[in-house]
Design a protein that fits this description.
The complex is a heterotrimer of chains A (296), B (294) and C (430). By secondary structure, chain A is mainly alpha-helical. Chain A contains 12 helices and 2 strands, in the order αββααααααααααα. In chain B, β1 and β2 form a beta hairpin. In chain B, 53% of the residues are buried. Classes of the chains: A mainly alpha (296), B mainly alpha (294), C alpha/beta (430).
Chain lengths: 296, 294, 430
């Protein structure tokens, strides 16, 4: 179904993408290049006498002398895989459910999608309240006799990861639910009819009709969401600060601490470039492996 | 006349994916399999909202589970004391502006990516992806300098531009996926009958893209509505700040006011949730099977 | 299609409105200056708005534009503004990042302006000293307006009910904390700030305990001295025994939520949280004591960062900017601000005001600062690496100590070494 129109008057696509290219070149080219530039320099605004060209020093230090780099990279990978996986599964399940017709479907859909509408600052604020031993939900549960008082999911190294995952899930699942629901609309009903005429039950229909149609959408949205989750630190930063003891520090969080808190902008830029390379590599790999764009 | 030939049939009410032929009995069983997980998930979704509402309407220091006695002091704090009214208007203008610009550009670019094969297509796609690989905080200062030279600091227009630059790649890629899903045969049929590509697009493809526009548009809207970093850093005047900045006031050192945060949160979230509630029905649209065969 | 059209209309409207809403400054001889509040929020913003109203009434040719910056992002905002060349005229600053701004050559020295005006000799010498120390040339780059002191907020009602007196030594504090802990009722004697901002508070505690009077002996940091290590050990031992488990990750917000939520008997913070704790609990339930002393009995205090106002070099109207600063630090405004916030006024004329007598925490804090036996041990906030060492590097290490993965001595030695290295560099550059 990915039809390709014949190559006549090829100015059309270029004209269509021109405004986008213009915006991106005007506003993103310089900033991105400046990150590359700074990664090759020592740059710290509070110690200007140390600034200067550093060549690949930052990168060498990063790769050989900085265990936190590897630790944060690994944690980022773990975070992304868990988040995107769970968000996809739940999002898909929800999209399928609210695609059905039932009473209260409109209300259900609005509610299911609503966490997406909440801003980052607010989300972290709400979850701080929810997880806090004094003001949170565990306190109320303990009052009712369930669990202990003073349960702190963010303070216990064993539960801090699941707790943070749940908080991010809350606002990430709607992304997939919305996208996949919109995509489900494009599946022509006659395909389902044909399948059921062939005797397929619901599960087989899902596997043979729904899933292949959603494949491209799933590939794209998981990739985009993975990149977003990789780079987005506000929730983790506020809930755990990357702790305890750097346990929940992702690479971008490490970058934020180095570049912003420590003012070590050169090294922070090098870390950013490392993240960039990792993301680029995996994006290309992912797209190749999923054979994106080629459809029977 | 082409239009009547291939215009999709009216939305089938109510949409069932159970095939009409086989009588699938066990409806009550099926509905509980549907409703139970949904109810559980809704509980998970709503508990945080409930917490927010409770904190917004309950006096500071109270620990009651239900906000009674009810108080509006937090709303007064944020609306009058902090100027949330202005923040709200700013957020609205910026979000709507971003929505408009991103939708148009994403539609154009998405169509190009989906319908054409042209030189540099792969590079373009990859470049779009690459723009998402660097956190905004690292590009803050160069962006600041660009905006300063372009006179875009301290203005809502500037925020629209910034938000557009960051939301557009995602929107475009997603939109291209949606466009690809619409069979090109529909447009070709129209063009065979004498429509120009443009006309075919407006008459055939665009209506079918409504769910896509709703999805992508709402992502752009929400992205702009919730942007904190640029809203704070690029504005130098109090009356140009947006809601997320206002919300972060309540989480300061020496200034933690959960009531104000919650009240601000209600102001920030409720309108969007309501709009979403209205708009979400466009996410679903009946697609008649007859359209393709016609 | 109606939807799209509507959007297009709103978009056009929006852009038009946004573009032309930037009116220019007033013409004629009027000056407009911008003032950035470094801690915008429901508590502080109304205070400044009132002060601005008064200033504009007294100075009709100067208009002040208030911009409230959330405290969590203020350093980043200043850095961005300086790098981008778009600074305000007046900015609120605290000494914890004043050195950074001075290092970027962004501020005007204020010594001459102060000495030639009504503020001469009126500012608390202790506070002035803390500001001077942040600059390599020992000049005054901000006009100090408010001092702060680390205190232990405690629940008077819990202490009374348990028949306990507030602690004066650390051992007493440990004892009280354990006695007041009752996990079944979700009550804990103490709460530790283990997350963001932990190190500074810990340092105030250690020096209060150990009685060490100088931060550096030559260029060697005294942070790793045995007295300090003892205190860190004692605090770590309290963790989970008399404190909530959440503490290891506690930033200010989470820590104060526990105290105001009623599950903690004692919380270490500073006068700045006065409004947060009293709003939630009321002045009859909450009192403040200064940090307990150690076995030596010496009162060694690491002073909290001093708030002040700075004039930016990039300002187009430094005279008007200074007038505003002068106004803010004058006796009447200084008294108003500090009374509302509950901190120590820098203007010595305010000392005799009635509200100070009525405000127990401030009175107590002033008593400590004015006591000749008190020794001030200022932290080296002038070091460019100070923030990096005490936040990025040391906060996770302290968490490891609390979790039992690192010994207190090792942790302090690591911190001390880094500080010594930084101090050596600093001395060499002078």
């Amino acid at each position: 179904m990915t039809a390709v129109l014949r190559r006549r008057r090829q100015w059309a696509p270029y004209a269509l993408i021109l405004p986008t290219v213009a915006v991106l070149v005007a506003f993103l080219l310089y900033p991105i290049s400046s990150v590359v530039y700074y990664s090759l320099r020592d740059y710290n605004v509070t110690q200007p006498w140390k600034n200067g060209f550093a060549g690949l020093d930052n990168f060498r230090r990063m790769l050989t002398d900085d265990p936190l780099f590897w630790q944060s990279l690994l944690f980022s990978a773990k975070w992304v895989v868990v988040q995107v996986g769970l968000q996809l599964l739940l999002g898909l399940a929800l999209a399928l459910i609210v695609n059905e017709t039932f009473i209260g479907r409109g209300v259900a859909r609005s509610l299911v999608f609503s966490p997406w509408a909440v801003s980052g600052v607010l989300t972290t604020g709400i979850w701080i309240l929810l997880y806090n031993p004094s003001t949170g939900v565990f306190q109320e549960l303990a009052n009712l006799g369930v669990g202990d008082h003073g349960t702190s999911v963010l303070g216990d190294p064993a539960t801090v990861f699941p707790a943070t995952v749940v908080a991010e899930l809350w606002r990430g699942v709607p992304f997939f639910a919305i996208l996949l629901l919109a995509d489900l609309q494009t599946i022509p009903k006659d395909l389902y009819e044909a399948a059921s005429v062939d005797g397929a039950n619901r599960w087989r229909r899902f596997l043979s009709v729904t899933l292949p149609h959603l494949r491209d959408a799933i590939v794209l949205s998981t990739l985009l969401r993975a990149v977003w989750e990789f780079n987005n630190v506000d929730l983790i930063y506020t809930l755990t600060g990357g702790g305890p003891a750097n346990q929940t520090t992702t690479l971008p969080l490490y970058v934020a601490r180095k570049a912003v808190d420590s003012h070590d902008f050169g090294y922070g830029s090098a870390l950013t470039i490392a993240g960039f390379v990792v993301l680029l590599f995996f994006s290309i790999l992912y797209l190749r492996l999923s054979k994106f764009g080629s459809r029977s | 006349m082409t239009e009547t030939l291939i215009r999709p049939l009216e939305v089938d009410p109510p949409r069932r994916d159970a095939p009409p032929r086989s009588r699938r009995r066990g409806e009550p069983g099926r509905s509980w399999r549907l409703h139970l997980p949904l109810a559980l998930y809704l509980l998970f979704t709503l508990v945080p909202f409930y917490w927010m509402v409770v904190f917004a309407f309950r006096p500071t220091g109270s620990t009651a589970l239900v906000p009674w006695p009810i108080t509006f002091e937090h709303f007064d704090t944020v609306w009058n004391g902090l100027g949330f009214g202005v923040f709200f208007t700013n957020s609205l203008l910026v979000a709507v502006g971003t929505l408009g610009v991103v939708s148009v550009l994403a539609l154009m670019g998405g169509y190009a990516l989906a319908r054409f094969r042209f030189r540099g297509q792969r590079v373009f796609l990859l470049a779009l992806l690459c723009t998402q690989f660097i956190p905004g905080a690292m590009m803050l200062i160069p962006l600041f300098v660009i905006f300063k030279n372009a006179g875009l600091l301290n203005s809502l227009t500037g925020l629209v531009v910034a938000d557009t630059a960051f939301q557009l790649p995602l929107a475009l890629i997603l939109m291209s996926g949606f466009v690809r899903n619409i069979p090109v045969e529909l447009e070709e049929a129209a063009m065979v009958d004498g429509c120009t590509r443009l006309r075919a697009f407006f008459a055939i493809t665009l209506p079918l893209l409504r769910p896509a526009l709703v999805a992508v548009g709402s992502f752009a809207f929400i992205g702009a509505w919730n942007n904190f970093l640029f809203a704070l850093m690029f504005a130098g005047r109090q009356d140009k700040f947006t809601l997320p900045v206002g919300l972060s006031y309540a989480l300061g050192e020496f200034n933690t006011d959960f009531g104000a945060l919650a009240a601000g949160g209600v102001v920030a979230a409720v309108p969007v949730v309501l709009v979403f509630a209205v708009v979400q029905r466009f996410l679903v649209q009946g697609l008649s099977a007859g359209a393709v065969k016609g | 299609m109606g939807f799209r059209r509507a959007v297009a209309v709103v978009l056009a409207l929006g852009l038009a409105l946004a573009g032309c809403s930037d009116a220019g400054d007033g013409g004629g001889g009027n000056a407009t200056i911008t003032f950035w509040d470094n801690n915008g929020g429901p508590g502080r913003t109304p205070i400044y708005e009132e002060l601005i109203k008064r200033f504009e009434a007294a100075n009709p040719t100067i208009k002040v534009e208030y911009v409230g910056v959330p405290s969590a992002s203020v350093q980043q905002k200043y850095d961005t503004a300086i790098a981008g060349g778009s600074v305000p005229d007046v900015g609120g600053v605290t000494t914890s990042y004043l050195a950074n701004l001075v290092g970027q050559d962004a501020l005007e020295p204020l010594d001459d302006r102060i000495d030639s005006g009504p503020l001469k000799g009126k500012l608390l010498p202790g506070l002035v000293e803390t500001v001077r120390q942040t600059a390599p040339d020992n000049k005054l780059y901000s006009a100090p307006s408010s001092g702060n002191l680390d205190v232990i907020w405690y629940r008077k009602d819990w202490f009374e009910a348990a028949n306990l007196t507030p602690p004066t030594t650390w051992d007493e504090l440990v004892d009280r904390a354990v006695k007041l802990t009752d996990p079944a009722r979700n009550r804990y004697g103490y709460t530790i700030r283990g997350g963001a901002g932990s190190i500074f508070q810990l340092l105030t505690e250690t020096y209060a305990y150990s009685g060490v009077e100088k931060f550096f002996e030559g260029t060697t940091s005294t942070v790793a001295s045995s007295g300090n290590a003892d205190l860190v050990r004692k605090v770590a031992e309290l963790y989970k025994k008399a404190t909530p488990e959440a503490d290891v990750n506690n930033n200010y917000t989470q820590m104060v939520a526990q105290f105001t939520g009623g599950s903690v008997a004692m919380m270490h913070h500073n006068l700045g949280s006065y409004s947060d704790v009293t709003k939630a609990l009321g002045t009859d339930k909450v009192g403040a004591i200064s940090l307990p002393v150690g076995p030596s009995g010496k009162k060694t205090v690491v002073p909290n960062p001093t708030d002040g106002f700075a004039v930016f070099k990039g300002s187009k109207n430094t005279d008007a900017a200074w007038k505003f600063v002068e106004f803010l630090v004058s006796a009447e405004s200084n008294s108003y601000w500090n009374e509302k916030v509950g901190q120590i006024p820098a203007n010595t004329d305010v000392r005799s005001e009635k509200w100070i007598e009525a405000n127990q925490p401030v009175r107590m804090a002033l008593g400590v600062l004015e006591d000749p036996a008190t020794k001030l041990v200022p932290a080296p906030v002038y070091l460019p690496q100070y923030s990096s060492i005490t936040k990025t590097d040391s906060e996770p290490a302290y968490q490891k100590v609390l979790l039992g993965q690192l010994s207190a001595q090792e942790f302090l030695t690591g911190l001390a070494d880094k500080l010594s290295a930084a101090q050596k560099e600093w001395e060499e550059r002078r």
